[in-house]
Amino acid sequence: MRKKFFAISSLVLMTVLLAGCTDLNKPINDQSTGFWSQWFVLPLSKFIISVAHLFWNSYGLAIIITTIIVRLVLLPLMAKQVKSSRAMQELQPKIKELQKKYSSKDQNTQKKLQEEQMKLFQQNHVNPLAGCLPILIQMPILFAFYQAIMRTSAIKTQSFLWFQLGSADPFYILPVVAAATTFLQQKIMMGRMGNDNPQMAMMLYVFPIMIAVPAFYFPSALALYWVVGNIFMIFQTYIIYEKKDDGQKDQKPAGGANKK
């Protein structure tokens, strides 16, 4: 567990360092140097430009299409996240029993509680950190999107709908929509999972604010990426959970028939 947490923390730190050490004032092109620029920012910039050439040179449409493609690529991981979240939810009664059994706050008891919880996870083939993987993978993509926009003049200076892609939304519409769709997506997922965890309920309101505040200042293209991604995830949540629910309904009669 600690090794996995350390690995995840290292990935986050490495992403921040790689992205943060890049000069945003330098345009991205074939002459750009550095691992981050060559392997993340430049390919994404070129891909957005290529897509734009297919759709009337509209970089706004290109960002929407690129976002959908990214979400489709991440779809298997999101399905795994749903599976892991459901498994964790099913284990909650047993976890609460362990917490009640090892309720003492001394170090030895808490260590025993952690060991018993990890044993429970291993017996049920549940990885408590699996739900974090899609979010972690999205972090480098989000940083790369930001730099691809700001370091590609053609994208940064083009207008789409009522906003300029490289500037903040002048009417604050996108930040509000980003917060609203984030709230809706989280609400739907919690409802489908039947999650009554107070911490998750708190994050339902905190997370949209965490998204909205930067969106007021960041390029509109980044807020557009988040809004489109949220809308995609809302439909994705319905589809994944509908399939899971249908699968469970199909299995119940079969199990009943075997008992007879």
TrEMBL record:
CDD domains with a match to the protein in the record: 5TM_YidC_Alb3 (cd20070)
Query: Could you tell me the gene encoding this protein?
Result: yidC
Q: Which domain of life is it from?
A: Bacteria
Q: Which residues cross the membrane?
A: 47-74, 128-150, 200-217, 223-241
The membrane-topology field of this record reads:
Multi-pass membrane protein
- Kindly give the InterPro entries that the UniProt entry links to this protein: YidC/ALB3/OXA1/COX18, YidC/Oxa/ALB_C, YidC/YidC1/YidC2_Firmicutes, YidC_ALB_C
Q: Which Pfam families match?
A: 60KD_IMP
Q: Which residues constitute the signal peptide according to the record?
A: 1-19
What PANTHER family does its record include?
CYTOCHROME C OXIDASE ASSEMBLY PROTEIN COX18, MITOCHONDRIAL (PTHR12428:SF65), OXA1 (PTHR12428)
Residue span, Membrane insertase YidC/Oxa/ALB C-terminal domain: 59-241
> What does this chain do?
Required for the insertion and/or proper folding and/or complex formation of integral membrane proteins into the membrane. Involved in integration of membrane proteins that insert both dependently and independently of the Sec translocase complex, as well as at least some lipoproteins.
Its Gene Ontology molecular function terms? membrane insertase activity
- State the organism of origin: Sporolactobacillus nakayamae
The record's keywords, sorted A to Z, are:
Cell membrane, Chaperone, Lipoprotein, Membrane, Palmitate, Protein transport, Signal, Transmembrane, Transmembrane helix, Transport
Q: Which family does it belong to?
A: Belongs to the OXA1/ALB3/YidC family. Type 2 subfamily.
Gene Ontology cellular component annotations, sorted alphabetically:
plasma membrane
Protein name (database record): Membrane protein insertase YidC
Q: Where in the cell is it found?
A: Cell membrane
Key word Membrane present in the record? yes
Which terms does the UniProt entry file under GO BP?
protein insertion into membrane; protein transport
